[in-house]
Write a structure and sequence with these properties.
heterodimer; A: 143 residues; alpha+beta; Archease, Possible Chaperone, Chain: A, domain 1; 5-stranded antiparallel β-sheet; 3-stranded antiparallel β-sheet; 8 strands; 41% strand; B: 511 residues; tRNA-splicing ligase RtcB; 8-stranded mixed β-sheet; 7-stranded mixed β-sheet; 21 strands; 31% helix; disordered N terminus
């Protein structure tokens, strides 16, 4: 499980590549990449409070998009930096569902070394695909 | 109706060489491109299957060579959209975007054509405001650090920033409908600001019923915030040698040597992004089953403009546009407070007046002449500035004979321009460039430059910078952008806009 930022991605935004042995790990890695686009150290986020995430979509790539949008929503609506844990991805009527626990704390500029303000998850080049060892995703974030 | 809007093309990656800032496009211009005039090019419909109109590129030879291949592919995809009229237009600062290239303009027949969030951008009504003062560099230089520091404190920027206004749900709904006018009625500006804002800061027809609760939750406390990315607030100076057209400059208020201006760039923040995301996904779901439409790129998801889905998005987009006008109005209020406090005189005595506020991410119904006939068209401008020429309806009274002011922001290290629209701009439905245009990805820029080094380097050149994020600062290095002088010169060569003055930054607040 891991992620990297793609150097030759979209010029004006941030493209991430994430991977994991299963879909839960993949979604966790993509969520961490999304949060790390906003804060330099993921370890600086203490799991002081918890939220639940539950999303559905007709396809896996759209499910990942909606899942990552949850993190952006909480960042804007309640000024929370949240990491995803215990992510479960499963088939659901008409597509797929993902549930997770989101843990984190309010943004504190004196503690969190803040980077880009991620404002959206785009459909540009969005993909979630199986590999020989698990799953890989590529996502471009609008910043 | 079941339409296939052209074949899917693998997007060629723009490759750059190893030297920071020395971006070199290795892709040749598209086959069949022909020169129409010195800075106008045309790519025929044979370039890609399904194109209904040609591509028109507005660029010098050098800018054309530096455009990434994806610009032409995306412009070709736009040319396949139903109802597109005349051409898919590409501005000199164009670069790879989502669906449309950034710097893309397309006019649609409102009866037979579509509306696409990808033709407007996620940051609906991202735009520029230029404010002049009656101060000179000599007066401001001793107070510069204090001004920038106070602006940094009072105009929040960066991740999760919130404004000083706490709005009830009812008040926020009023902002959606009333835009900058709501702010002026609350004492956060004056009628003269509205007179010098596109659409007087309020696009009629905004409907809060078309907005999701999530968009409201994301946006209702963000009025008066800059955001991040390429958004900024700058204190600038108009040096005498950079006033290109002194007559029009004087008409717009530039009358003093080394006159100080404030320019800022921001949009509708999380609210606009949520509106765009909501409707992009709704259009994706409805496109094929309901309208028989397919697009080659999901970011071009669209709906017939006349459909209920299309009309709902149009009304929601207007809400976001109005939030953006209000956001820039509240920011101006804070700027006036800061200048008044630091310089010890009320802002009114400092002559702080809005020259113009103009959007560069919108779709608007406008009347244009096509093949000798006047037609109402839905003009998508994504990363493109409206640039009405002299005599156009809706211009501020004092600008009717000189054309609409156009504000084109450069990188934080170089400079920005004030221009005016021209009658010859009819060829692009009166649209021009909006900025420098990036040539280097943010990720690469962050690896190539260090924010603190940039800050020190800029300070040694007389530009004092405060930033919410040093890595964000690195991403905005001047070398990550095209040459603003070349972009602006190309707009003039192409007859899209006329240079009035160039502004040099001396202070910068960066998101």
């Amino acid at each position: 499980m891991g992620f990297e930022f793609v150097e030759d991605g979209v010029t004006s935004d941030v493209t991430l590549r994430a991977w994991g042995p299963d879909l839960g790990a993949l979604f966790t890695a993509a969520a961490d990449a999304t949060v790390q686009a906003m804060v330099r150290s993921l370890d600086s986020i203490e799991p002081a409070l918890h939220k639940q995430a539950s999303v559905k979509a007709e396809a896996l790539d759209l499910l990942l998009l909606r899942f990552l949008e949850e993190l952006i929503f909480w960042k804007d609506a309640s000024r929370l930096l949240l990491r995803a844990t215990a992510v479960r991805v499963r088939p659901s009527a008409g597509g797929y569902a993902a549930e997770a626990e989101l843990c984190g704390e309010p943004i504190d500029a004196s503690k969190h070394d803040l980077e880009a303000d991620v404002k959206g998850v785009t459909l540009h080049g969005l993909r979630v695909e199986p590999t020989n060892t698990g799953w890989v995703a590529e996502v471009t974030l609008d910043v | 109706m079941h339409e296939q809007l052209g074949p899917r093309h693998a997007t060629a990656r723009f490759r750059v060489d190893g030297a920071p800032g020395a971006a070199v496009c290795l892709m040749p211009p598209p086959p069949g491109i022909r020169r129409v005039s010195e800075a106008v090019w045309e790519v025929p419909t044979s370039f890609q299957a399904g194109m209904r109109v040609p591509i028109r590129v507005f660029a010098t030879d050098a800018l054309l060579q530096s455009m990434d291949d994806a610009v032409f592919r995306q412009a070709a995809n736009v040319a396949t959209l139903p109802g597109i009229v005349a051409a898919s237009h590409v501005m000199p600062d164009a670069h790879w975007g989502y669906g449309f290239p950034i710097g893309g303009v397309a006019a649609m027949d409102p009866r037979s054509g579509v509306i696409s969030p990808g033709g407007i951008g996620f940051d609906i009504n991202c735009g520029m405001r230029l404010v002049l003062t009656r101060l000179t560099l000599e007066e401001v230089r001793p107070k510069l650090r204090e001004l920038v520091d106070r602006l940094y404190d009072l105009v929040p920027a960066g991740v999760g920033s919130r404004g000083f206004l706490t709005l009830s749900a009812k008040e926020f709904a009023e902002v959606l409908e009333q835009g900058a006018g709501w702010c002026v009625r609350r004492g956060l500006g004056n009628d003269d600001d509205l007179d010098h804002t596109e659409e007087r800061g309020c696009i009629a027809g905004a409907d809060p019923e078309t907005i999701s609760p999530r968009a409201v939750e994301r946006g209702h406390h963000q009025l008066g915030t800059l955001g991040s990315g390429n958004h900024y607030l700058e204190i600038q100076v108009a040096r005498p040698e950079n006033v290109v057209d002194p007559t029009i400059a004087a008409r717009l208020g530039i009358t003093l040597p080394n006159q100080i201006a404030v320019m800022f760039h921001c949009g509708s923040r999380g609210f606009g992004h949520q509106v765009a995301s909501d409707y992009l996904q709704a259009f994706l779901r409805a496109m094929k089953p309901k309208f028989g439409l397919e697009t080659v790129d999901r970011e071009l998801a669209c709906a017939p403009f006349s459909s209920s889905e299309g009309q709902s998005y149009f009304a929601a987009m207007k809400c976001a546009a109005n939030v953006s006008f209000a956001n820039r109005q509240v920011i101006l209020h804070r700027i006036r407070e800061v200048f008044g406090a630091v310089l010890g005189r009320p802002a009114s005595e400092l002559g702080m007046r809005t020259v113009y506020d103009v959007a560069h991410n919108t779709a608007k119904l406008e009347t244009h002449v096509v093949d000798g006939k006047r037609r109402e068209l839905l003009v998508h401008r994504k990363g493109a500035t409206r640039a009405f020429g002299p005599g156009a309806p809706g211009l501020p009274r004092g600008y009717a004979d000189i054309g609409q002011p156009v504000i084109i922001g450069g990188s934080m290290e170089t400079g920005s321009y004030l221009l005016t629209g021209l009658s010859s701009g009819a060829t692009t439905f009166f649209s021009t460039a909006h900025g420098s245009g990036r040539t280097m990805s943010r990720t690469k820029a962050k690896k190539s430059f260090r924010g603190r080094d940039l800050q020190h380097g800029m300070e040694s050149r007389g530009i004092y910078v405060r930033t919410a994020s040093y890595s964000g600062l690195a991403e905005e290095a001047g070398a990550a952008y095209k040459d603003i002088d070349a972009v602006v010169a190309a707009t003039e060569l192409a007859g899209l806009s006329h240079r009035v003055a160039r502004f040099t930054p001396i202070g910068n607040v960066k998101g």
